[in-house]
Amino acid sequence: MTKRYTQELAQLVLGTRADAIPDDVYLTTQACLLDSIGVGLAGSVDELVSILESVVSDLGGAEQSSVIGRRRKFSMADAALLNGVIIHTFDFDDMHLASSMHPSAPVFGAAMAVAEHVGASGLEMLRASALGLEVCTRIGDAVNPAHYSGGWHATATLGHFGSVTAASVLLGLTPQQMVHALGIAGTQAAGLKAPFGTMTKPLHAGHAARNGVVAAMLASRGFTCTEEILEGKTAFGAVMSKNPDWEKVVGEWGQRWTTLDILYKPHATSFCTQALIESVIELRGQHGLTPDNVAKIRGFVSQMSFNNAVIGNPKTGLEAKFSHTFAAAQALAYGQATQHDYTDERVAEDVIQKIRAKTVVQAREDLRWPMAYVEIDTVDGKTLKNGVDLEERMKSAQQKWDLVSKKFVRIMKGVIADDQVNRLVQQVDQLQASKKFDASAYAIEVADK
Fold it and tell me: What's this model's pTM, rounded to 2 decimal places?
């Protein structure tokens, strides 16, 4: 008889009390939340967000929940949609390697909207979010690498399971209701990698957040679905993966936390290019490199990174996020890769085009996803070398919080007032003790700078 993994998962999730979640998991979850609010506020002024908001507004709906970077409220489902999109707009949000996904956008997109509407405490919101992050990353670990390499955008597909988990916990579903909620969300799980480099990629994250909220609401009122959305013969695993290992989802529950493996991006671009950018920036700073004194750049990245940043000749800022040669050129020319650097105008600059022309990037088998190695030949005959492993720089939960706190302050400079920056960091830092999750702090209009 086939083990009923979906039912076991629902029981494990809802049976996990707040005091059973370790402190380092809570701290990591808080780092994810602060990072999501920061990259969300930065991304909330983007054109794609304005287009989506106009469509949502035309469709109408009750004013129930706040949205990052907006003063007005939207329906709980639409707030989840907008939050998820906004967090993922700049592709600056966190990453989980084993699941090949950005877990926070769909999870917090849903959790923030539902927590506010039901009046959840800070601890209740964090518990639900931590469990949502854990579920989607565990399922991702179980179905990959076949799932992602098969063309699915994991943030879109797996995000459904994270968002519905968070929503189910906050809405107080029973284990049986959550089984159906997982099914309703899982059967809607979709999203392909083909739209990478377009406005539709962040739409995937919002779509996952919204569907998770709606699925939990439906199940809470008696709506039914398959009780084997994970393990069924024609269910998620069988259709969208190859021989998934469901024991990775339920095994060592409460002892092994995949949430602790979440990493954060120092640069506002695809994770595939992060280590490459960091390697070039470090050499630039150490040796005073400029576009004029560099003759050749040879970059080496993991096969996964190479396969998923495939735009060789980007024409737009969105496309540039998935171009290794642009990443190296941007890093050398400007020593940074912020949310303001990925524009159509920057892509077309002569200096960027000239550096790209002397840059070659290849895959190397000994490199993992968060790693890169760079060799730069200078015009005076020197060869400079540097390697970076981003995973080593954020091993502990405290390292994660420290990194995200500094990143938050950096990217909020000129976007919101300094006192608002400090207040948001303090609010998230003290969230466990908060009697009510306060969404008003991030529901603000921001400057487009």
Answer: 0.92
